[in-house]
Amino acid sequence: MTETERKILTKLVSEPPKFNEPMSRHTTLRVGGIADSIVSVHSLGELQRVVQFALERRLPILVLGEGSNLIVRNGGIQGIVLKLTGELTQINFDTQEVEVGSGTYLPHLLVKAAQRGLSGLECCTGIPGTVGGALISNAGSAEEFIGDRVRRLTILTHEGELRVVERDEIKFGYRQSNLKELGLVIVSVVLGLTFDEPKAIMERIHRRWRYRWVTQPVNMPCAGCIFKNPPNERAGRLLDAAGLKGLRIGDAQVSTIHANFIVNLGNAKANEVLELAELMRRTVKEKFDIALEYEVQIVGKDE
Ligand code: EPU
Question: How distant, in Å, are the alpha carbons of 7, 211, 258, 299 from that of 127?
């Protein structure tokens, strides 16, 4: 990014962008090289201005949620890393529907919906991501997904136009969607929920939380499950049965609690995490002849 581009970008937004920012500060696994820029946009107007500028200058855009399902390679990210905040995190309830800005922190939405007596998002308990990130990867449990609740979305297209996308255009699968093809940035989503007692909803949320606390390394830097569950199998079970728990490359370690998680013991680097992940994949292929697919998003340049 040129000095002129930096100056223009700074004028387009209300919060000063961060330039040459280590992505390790913005991912829950705490790894990742330098991003050219991290730009927080506080309104639809700011978002449209930055996207327009990026399109004109052919600067790549990566929308960053909470960085909780993300591995950024050591070489970092060119162009603009976008964070959606302010007006883009609004939550508006309307009887059994809720319209949510895609920058909204998912646990915050879950609690607000439960307080209103609106059920349907409990499968997203404990996912420390944004609504937009959850939509892209159709987050949830192994059986229920946020995509099941989607009625329509507002997106910025790859040409920078604002467009409403109806449910029948959207394809959700297990931990996948066609949303990146449909648009450059998800602005907001309308979710359909069902009425229930707030107490009953909160109890379900607490039960799922307790399960996660016992079965996942929730208090360690990690990026959630590394691999998708193969059809009729569980990646964690296979990786565990292959004897991989506790295996280390540098400070990257296969969690001793859940074998489908890699934890950062302090100073892990992205290349160590990715080497370890490949070793996990190879071992499962050799032992069980099953090819695991990545669930985490892997972005950025090699060193
Ligand atoms: N298992 C082992 N060893 C392990 C881990 C798991 O034997 O080290 C066994 C468990 O005993 C259980 C089975 O594997 O019988 C499944 O484990 P778990 O209940 O933990 O569920 P999972 O399939 O591993 C899925 C989602 C998680 C989600 C949990 C709970 C995927 C890839 N993972 O995990 O999502 O939190 O269910 O709902 O679908 C994520 O997407 O990042 C994620 C963490």
Answer: 36, 13, 16, 20
For a ligand 1 pocket test, name from 135, 141, 234, 256 the mutation site with the most ligand atoms within 8 angstroms of its C-beta. 234
Residue 236 Cβ contacting ligand 1 at under 6 Å: yes
The CA distances from residue 269 to 36, 37, 105, 226, in Å, are 19, 20, 26, 16
Tell me how far apart the alpha carbons of residues 121 and 109 are, in angstroms, rounded to a whole number: 9
Tokens at 33, concatenated? 């090289």
Tokens of 59: 């600067």
> Is the pTM higher than 0.85?
yes
List 46, 66, 122, 295, catalytic entry: 295
CB 226 within 8 A of CB 278: no
pLDDT at 302 over 90: no
pLDDT tens digit string along 233-251? 999 999 999 999 999 999 9
Same domain, 173 and 262: no
**What CATH number did the domain enclosing 35 receive?**
3.30.43.10
**Residue 111: which domain range?**
90-214
